[in-house]
Design goal:
- The protein is α+β, with helices and mostly antiparallel strands.
- Helices cover about 35% and strands about 20% of the residues.
- The protein has one domain: Nitrilase/N-carbamoyl-D-aminoacid amidohydrolase (4-Layer Sandwich), CATH 3.60.110.
- It has six helices and nine strands; from the N terminus they run αβββαββαβαβββαα.
- The strands form two sheets. The chain has a six-stranded mixed beta sheet with strand order 4-5-6-7-8-9, covered by helices on one side. It has a three-stranded antiparallel beta sheet with strand order 1-2-3.
- Helix 3 runs parallel beside helix 4.
Length: about 240
C-alpha cells in the first residue's frame, strides 16, 4: 500500500483513533527491499486498530488463475502474447485474525469464501480461533446478474458450516450481515451506496465440518455410492421379475 496518498492514511488513522472504530480496507500490498524496490505484490486487506500503531495485514491466499497469477507452464505464452496480467504473491493458508474490541475476526477476499475447507482450516488452526468471518469483494465484474445473489448464498453456507456470523462488504452487492445460522439479518440493495448498522456477536467452538472439513462429506458420499452399488442391481432385478 506504498502508493496510497499520505493524506488518506492520516485521515483514516485520525478517524479510527477519534471514534474508537476498527477499520478494514483493501489495497495492494508489497514487500520493500533494502534498496527500496517493491516486490511480491499481494491482493491484501489492511486493518487499523484505534489507539494502536501498526497495521494488520491479510494477503489473499487463493488466487484467480490469469487474473491474479500466471499458472505454471503458461509464462511463455503470456510473454509471447505480451498480455499485461497480474502476478500476485500468495498469502499463507492460515493467517492471524484481526481483532475488533478483543473479538478475533477472520478475513477473506472475493471468492475465497467458495472454499469451505479453507475457511474451516482458518477457524480450526488459528491459535486464537476467530468468532466472526468477514468477506470483502469486488463484484462489478458480474454486472447485474445472478452471481450477486449466488455469492451471498455461498457466504450463508460458510456461516452454517463454521457456526460463525459472516459480514460482507461489496461494491455492487450484496453487502450483508449473516448470523451464525446462515440467516441474512441485514442487507443493502444491490448497486446502492450506504452502510449497515447491525449487532453481531462472535461464536466459539467447532462444528463437525470445522473439525473434519470435507472428509466427512466425502466419507458419507462414498458410503452412499457403495450402498447403491451393493443393493441397487438386486432391487432392479427384483423389480423386473
Amino acid at each position: 500500500m506504498q502508493e496510497i496518498p499520505e493524506k488518506f492514511g492520516r485521515d483514516i488513522r485520525a478517524f479510527a483513533d477519534g471514534t474508537g472504530t476498527a477499520i478494514l480496507f483493501g489495497a495492494v500490498g508489497g514487500t520493500i527491499t533494502p534498496d527500496r524496490r517493491v516486490v511480491d505484490y499481494t491482493n491484501s486487506t489492511f486493518g487499523i486498530t484505534p489507539g494502536k500503531n501498526g497495521l494488520y495485514r491479510y494477503d489473499k491466499h487463493h488466487l484467480v488463475p490469469f487474473g491474479e497469477f500466471v499458472p505454471w507452464g503458461f509464462r511463455w505464452f503470456v510473454n509471447l502474447m505480451n498480455i499485461p496480467l497480474g502476478d500476485f504473491a500468495r498469502g499463507a493458508p492460515v493467517q492471524p485474525p484481526f481483532f475488533v474490541h478483543n473479538q478475533p475476526v477472520a478475513v477473506d477476499i472475493c471468492y475465497e469464501d467458495i472454499f469451505g475447507e479453507e475457511i474451516a482450516r482458518t477457524v480450526r488452526e488459528n491459535p486464537v480461533s476467530p468468532g466472526i468471518l468477514i468477506n470483502s469483494t469486488n463484484l462489478a465484474w458480474f454486472g447485474d446478474t445472478i452471481a450477486l445473489d449466488q455469492h451471498l448464498q455461498i457466504a450463508r453456507m460458510r456461516a452454517l458450516e463454521t457456526g460463525r456470523p459472516m459480514l460482507r462488504a461489496t461494491n455492487t452487492g450484496a453487502t450483508a450481515a449473516i448470523d451464525a445460522h446462515g440467516k441474512v439479518i441485514a442487507r443493502l440493495p444491490a448497486f446502492t451506496v450506504g452502510s449497515l448498522d447491525v449487532r453481531v456477536e462472535g461464536t466459539q467452538g467447532f462444528t463437525p465440518y470445522v473439525t473434519s472439513g470435507n472428509n466427512t462429506v466425502i466419507a458419507i458420499s462414498l458410503l452412499l455410492l457403495a450402498f447403491g452399488f451393493a443393493f441397487g442391481p438386486a432391487r432392479l432385478r427384483r423389480k423386473k421379475a
